[in-house]
UniProtKB/TrEMBL annotation:
Cell compartments where the protein resides: Nucleus
Recorded GO CC terms: nucleus
Record CDD domains: SANT
Keyword Transmembrane (UniProt): no
Location of the Myb-like domain: 9-61, 62-112
Main location (coarse class): nucleus
Cross-referenced InterPro entries: Homeodomain-like_sf (IPR009057), Myb_dom (IPR017930), Myb_TF_plants (IPR015495), SANT/Myb (IPR001005)
Keyword list, A-Z: DNA-binding, Nucleus, Repeat
Protein name: Myb-related protein 306-like protein
Amino acid sequence: MGRSPCCDKVGIKKGPWTPEEDILLVSYVQEHGPGNWRLVPTNTGLQRCSKSCRLRWTNYLRPGIKRGNFTPHEEGMIIHLQALLGNKWAAIASYLPQRTDNDVKNYWNTHLKKKLKKFQPAMELPQMAQVCLNKTVAGSSSTIATYASSTENISRLLQGWMRASPNICSNQSAINESGGGDLMSNEHFESILWFENMNNVAWEKSACGSTTSKGGFQDSGNDDQFSVEITQEMKQKTGNNSKFYPSFSSLEKWLLDDSCAGQVEEMNQSIELSPIF
DNA sequence: AAGGTAGACAACCGCTTCCTG
DNA sequence: CCAGGAAGCGGTTGTCTACCT
C-alpha cells in the first residue's frame, strides 16, 4: 500500500497547474464526472498523477468553492469545531460546504492558530470556542461577501453543467439550484446541508459533562460510551457508508449551554479589548 | 531600488481507510 | 477473511507576493 506509484513515474509533472491543464481537467470531469481518477491522466493526456488531478479538482476547480477571506462567522465556526473535533479538517470543512479541507487547514495554520495562541494561557480551547461562537452567532446576521479569484470563472462555467448533471455532486447541484447560481448565505447553507431532522441524542446527552481540559472528547472518562453512541447513531443514520458528523445546531447547543459558560465572561472581555476579532 | 523576511496558499508526500475481488 | 488497489486525509513543503529595512 502506501503512496500511489503513479507519482513516482518519470514524466509526471509537478508544480503549479497551468490554465491549459485546468481546462483539460475541467473538460474531462464535465464529460465523465468526478471519480475514477486513475483514468484521468490517461484519458486527458495530462502529465499528472491521478492523485494530483483529484486534489486539483476538489480543492480548486470544483464548482461552488468560495475563495478569499473567511468571514468572522466562518472563522468562529472553524475555531469551535477545531476545539471539538481536533484537526479533522475534512470534518470541519463539511460544516463549511463552500470551503475545502485544505483551505480550512491553511487558514487555521496561518491565521487562527496565532490568534488563539494569545488566549491559550488564559483559557482552554472549548471555552475559547464557546466565546467565539457566542460572538459569531450574535453577529452572524448574514456575513455574505463576494469573492473574486482566478478560478471563479472556471467554477462559474461549471455551474450550468452541475445543474444539468444532477447525478454528479447532487448536493452541490442542489446548492446551486437553490442559490440561483449566486453564492449563498451561510444561513441557507446550514439549513440545507445537514440532516435536518436529526435527533442527536448522543450529542445532546454529552453536553458539557464530557468535555475535558484538552478540548476534545477523547480524554473524558465518559468518552468511550459517548463514542459508541455516536458510532451507533452514525451507522443507523448513514447505513454504515457515508461520513457522518453531528449537525451544527447540536454543536451550537452544546457550546452555548449556559452551564458551560463558566469563565467565559472573563474571556469575552479580553476579546472585546483585543484588536484580533 | 535592492535584498531580506514573513505571510499566504497551492501542491505534494505518505499514512490510513475503504472497497472490491 | 485477506490482500491489493484506490481514494481520503492530515502534515509538510515550495513558491509567490507583499512588506520592511
